[in-house]
Amino acid sequence: MEAFADPSIKGIFSIIGGNDSVRLEPFVDLNVLQANPKVFMGYSDTTASHFLCLKAGLSSFCGPSILAEFAENVECFAYTIESVRRTLFSSTPLGVIEPERERWTGQGLAWDRPGNAKMKRKTFSPLGPQLLQGEGVVEGSLLGGCIEVLEMLRATPLWPAPEVWDGSVLFLEVSEENPPVDFFRRWIRGYASMGVLQRVKAVLFGRPMCLPDSPMMRGYDLVLQEVVHDECGLVDLPLVTQLDFGHSDPKFVLPIGQRVVSDCVKRQL
Questions:
Q1: C-alpha–C-alpha distance, residues 251 and 63, integer Å
Q2: pLDDT in tens, 80-126
Q3: How many angstroms separate the CA atoms of 77 and 215, rounded?
Q4: 239 by DSSP, 3-state: which?
Q5: Could you give the number of structural domains in the chain?
Q6: CATH number where 107 lies
Q7: Which of 150, 186, 231, 235 is deepest in the core (most CB within 10 A)?
Q8: 241, containing H or E segment
């Protein structure tokens, strides 16, 4: 609240995530946020704070945090730095979001071992965007976040009204805990039962934080398509996965509430 109200502060970056930002809701005056729009960026547990901004009418940025990206493991990925520069330091439309084509990492190194700070994580060749289903070009406003945090927001004052989901593009990611695929299936079924999947224009899914040979790497994709296509019959809803956002690195910045175009033919955002 102090940071938003202070005119000398131009941007607020989350230091790290967690699991309790939802507790801020009773103590935040949305009028202060609305009267003092500024850059606000973070991801994971910060999803709750993004929905505070959304309710106040602000577009915030789902992107890297200070400790988990900028300060971790020798250096920040050049792809992440470039995305921050393009998104936050320019008013030019972002244009095509090119995927990382050289390297990515889903390796986790324990923070309680000081020596790990000087170790570069293992990197791998990215799969690139995966189109599970969908055709043509769709457009809508970006709305979403970390799916475990979104579960905490259901039925709270921060959960968007049904009409807010209309015509939006839903983006989802899982935390570094990589929840079991059965949990993920239940959560996606919940979006169907609430009518969210029937209202959105497309679903974008970030690459999970795991090694390439992990069953989670494609497990979430299979479950997402199973629920959307087989159970819900939403055979035309575009599903694009393995995108460069979420808990793996590097990542691009998503401007929540802004318009995004998903081209299924070119597999481009």
A1: 7
A2: 999 999 999 998 999 999 999 999 999 988 878 888 888 889 999 99
A3: 25
A4: strand
A5: 1
A6: 3.50.30.60
A7: 150
A8: strand 239-243
